[in-house]
Amino acid sequence: MSKKTLTAVRGNILHFLSDPALHGDEAYQYVEDGILLCENGHIKKLGSAHELLGEIPEEVEIEHYPGHLIVPGFIDTHVHYPQIGMIAAYGEQLLEWLETYTFPTERRFSDQVYAEQVAEVFLNELVSCGTTTALVFGTVHPQSVDAFFNKAEARNLRMICGKVLMDRNCPDYLRDSAESGYRESRDLINRWHGKDRLQYAITPRFAPTSSPEQLGRAGDLLRENPGVYMHTHLSENKNEIAWVQELYPDSKHYLDVYDRYNLLGNRSVFAHGVHLCDDACQRLADTQSAIAHCPSSNLFLGSGLFPLQKLRDLGVKMGFGTDVGAGTSFSMLQTMSDAYKIQQLQGSTLPAMQAFYRATLGSAEALDLQSTIGNFEYGKEADFVVLNPRASTLLNFRVDRARNLEEQLFVLAMLGDDRTVSATYIMGEAQFKREDHCTKAGCTHTHC
Ligand code: GUN
Ligand code: ZN
């Protein structure tokens, strides 16, 4: 038997066991000056340094991050890797933005070498922001997915991706057919789903760009391949919703289009859901389908204000997504900040504990991966992030004035960004370290 590999990090450790909106202080565990011990890339033990220092074998080097916060890796439940080249494109709302910027950008992904170059840039961004798992759109080209999975596999990342299905209302150069889309998706599933840490998502772009026949074939794929995901967009923008009603006049509402083709379920993830009627919300809850809430994107495209509280009260599974390139940041901390402000505009709120829960365990639950990632329970995959609450001059000044953990987390969520991420660990090993990070005993500052 091969020798067991033990790795350990030391710092202030926080993770969630359930939703703090439902279980308050019982929902999380916080160990000030704790140690997280990993064995062969999985969580072995979490405890106070005081307790664990004596029992960890001497040869195990403990990486010490004094004053830093160690949390589970962030999970982005909706993002488009090909759109990194058009992030921050000016001046349009959804439908015009797709025509003007998105479709021409996605055209280039017929070239697998180009796609691999972009996938590399994208994964560097994700990991340097502390995101360790994502549910990712490719383009209509199967080679865009091969490119993405090749790069994710080389880094041992847990990633979910799929080829876009799109057989109408788009340029010819991005169009597949119900049959070619079915075949190409099936072949990609056979090639990638369940390989290492990779999983496949059947990915109709959204109802307007798929014929009824294509949505029917997507339903076939889902039925024939248990365990694969279904990933699409839903009720993001008012003009889009009106268009769906014209294209599918017999449907009760937008979600009902997908429902009629058997596309709802425990591994179905719908991006946005900004404008949903009560019936659609209830149907999401009843089928255990998930919403990916993408606050940065909703603000950037002027799509609307997401009803987080209503969906949570109904028990709808919900994660956070960046939706880059409509979202303008890869950072889950900035995503928390936008999510908070969207609730404020509706007279509601989002406490920091709930925001950190959503970006970790809540998003794992949305992806039905809660028994694999999302917190530091024994046996889970050891993907985690080391955050430096003093990463900038302003943060340093402000954090000194935070009176408790909740306040420190809120400041991190409002003022933090990629600079706040000192290190990102994948399966117990550091895959990213910010260069200016200092691990000298007692030092919590950068540039020293
Ligand atoms: N709806 C259909 N396609 C897209 C896309 O690429 N981005 C966003 N935000 N919404 C969409
Ligand atoms: Zn999207």
From TrEMBL:
Please indicate which superkingdom the organism of origin belongs to.
Answer: Bacteria
Q: How is the cofactor bound?
A: Binds 1 zinc ion per subunit.
SUPFAM superfamilies hit by this protein: Composite domain of metallo-dependent hydrolases (SSF51338), Metallo-dependent hydrolases (SSF51556)
Cofactors named for this entry: Zn(2+)
Q: Which GO terms describe its cellular component?
A: cytosol
**Might you give the EC number(s) for this enzyme?**
3.5.4.3
Q: Name one GO molecular function term.
A: zinc ion binding
Its recorded reaction(s) are: guanine + H2O + H(+) = xanthine + NH4(+)
| Location of the Amidohydrolase-related domain | 70-429
The yes or no answer to whether the keyword Metal-binding is present is: yes
* Top class in the EC scheme: hydrolase
Cite the entry's keywords alphabetically.
Answer: Hydrolase, Metal-binding, Zinc
Kindly list the biological process annotations in GO that this record carries.
guanine catabolic process
- Pfam families recorded: Amidohydro_1
Q: In which pathway does it act?
A: Purine metabolism; guanine degradation; xanthine from guanine: step 1/1
Q: Which InterPro entries does the entry link to?
A: Amidohydro-rel, Guanine_deaminase, Metal-dep_hydrolase_composite, Metal_Hydrolase, Metallo-dep_hydrolases
* PANTHER family hit by this protein: GUANINE DEAMINASE (PTHR11271)
Protein's job:
Catalyzes the hydrolytic deamination of guanine, producing xanthine and ammonia.
Similarity comment text for this entry: Belongs to the metallo-dependent hydrolases superfamily. ATZ/TRZ family.
Its protein name is: Guanine deaminase
| Organism, as annotated | Sinobacterium caligoides
Its taxonomic placement starts with: Bacteria, Pseudomonadati, Pseudomonadota, Gammaproteobacteria, Cellvibrionales
